[in-house]
Specification:
By secondary structure, the protein is an alpha/beta fold. Helices cover about 40% and strands about 20% of the residues. Strand 5 and strand 6 form a beta hairpin.
Length: about 375
């Protein structure tokens, strides 16, 4: 059974020779050691062996977003400007300003050369008044035709070594990302109807685009991210249906209508919302973090929802960097035992994230080797 066959059989709930293993963001394709971009952490020699190891040994799941072919700028684009600035340390700052008449909104993000992430220094929406103003602006417009080129090219590059996973935010993710966390929680909880208007604004773009992509690219795995914003401790479970199910369920139905598989992404505490997640009809769940990062074991999820869901997880990223090799090996063995316990649709062994610093420690590399060493002995 080749790697692509193993992954697709797992998604369908069919028997496999062994559980697939994915290194999540690491896929051995997107990490380019030859790229001299100063923000490319993978150019550091400490990453090179792991990139090659990932390419050769993992069941590769490559995340891709699907762009749209548009005819021109939207009304919102016309009043939005973006400027990129570099400071003396080489950090990249991106400033976005939306200006309409005498009112404006602004955001600022920062990227550092040695850390593979983007920091939000200033969110676009700071308070309730900003939200009301934003809702008065022209709505974003859905693209007309999905550009499937990158998906087909990536699948050709992968061959039988893996699959592409279409990656999309849900309306809650797009809405919550406009605020700092405290402001999001307060406004979403106290101004529910107004916040729903914001969700609908994004849903009016995301839903038709999901339908178009699902039709143009049938039968693929998808990842929908954002539902964790409506989980404890951020918001009470009672708001999960209002903010997630109402919007994600139609996305999932559109994906499945064309033979696709919808995987929900949610970090953190899942116990209070697991039933709600399952009620969306989704096909998979990741990363199912073990306690203390999460609040349920992989076995708990497998026993209750394993017949419906392919489970992706549940190795904690911090354990890759901090535990001894022997301690980590026991975590891998436990994840495999719980992920395969009883009956169920399928299980993919996978970390919750990957290291994001420029220099990969030898210990972290040895942990990745341990994952493959253990899974290949099954």
């Amino acid at each position: 059974m080749n790697r692509r066959e193993r992954l697709m059989a797992t998604l369908r709930g069919e028997p496999v020779d062994r559980p697939p293993v994915s290194f999540y963001e690491l896929n051995g394709l997107d990490e380019n050691p030859e790229d001299d971009d100063p923000f490319n952490i993978y150019s550091h020699p400490s990453w090179h062996s792991l990139i090659k190891f990932t390419r050769e040994k993992t069941d590769r799941i490559v995340m891709r977003q699907v762009p749209f072919i548009n005819t021109g700028k939207s009304a919102l684009d016309e009043i939005t400007t973006t400027k990129i600035i570099y400071n003396e340390n080489g950090s990249e700052f991106t400033q976005t300003i939306i200006q309409s008449g005498s009112q404006s909104l602004s955001s600022l993000t920062r990227k550092d050369r040695d850390v593979n992430t983007t920091w939000v220094i200033e969110p676009l929406l700071k308070n309730l008044e900003d939200l009301k103003y934003y809702l008065s602006l022209p709505s974003p417009e859905p693209g007309s035709t999905p550009d499937t080129t990158s998906i087909h090219e990536t699948e050709k590059q992968l061959g039988d070594s893996g699959i592409v996973m279409i990656d999309t935010p849900d309306p809650l993710c797009e809405a919550a990302a406009l605020f700092e966390m405290e402001a999001f929680m307060i406004i979403a909880y106290t101004e529910t109807k107004l916040f729903q208007r914001l969700l609908q604004r994004f849903a009016s773009v995301i839903q038709p685009q999901t339908e178009s992509i699902a039709k143009a690219l049938p039968g693929r795995l998808w990842r929908i991210y954002g539902p964790e914003y409506a989980s404890p401790p951020f918001l009470p479970p009672s708001l999960f249906e209002t903010f997630v199910i109402s919007y994600d369920e139609p996305m999932i139905k559109a994906i499945q209508q064309f033979g696709g598989y919808a995987r929900i992404h949610a970090h953190g505490r899942l116990k209070a919302i697991l039933g709600s997640i399952a009620s969306t009809g989704c096909d998979g769940l990741d990363p199912i973090e073990p306690p203390p990062q999460g609040d349920v074991s992989l076995r708990y999820v497998r026993e209750r929802y394993g017949e419906q869901l392919v489970l992706f997880g549940n190795l904690e990223a911090s354990d890759i960097e901090n535990l001894s090799v022997d301690e980590f090996r026991q975590k891998v063995l436990l994840a495999i035992e719980e992920g395969m316990s009883g009956s169920g649709r399928g299980f993919v062994l996978m970390p919750s994230a990957c290291p994001y610093g420029r220099i990969l420690s030898p210990l972290a590399y040895e942990k990745y080797q341990t994952i493959i060493e253990v899974i290949e002995k099954i």
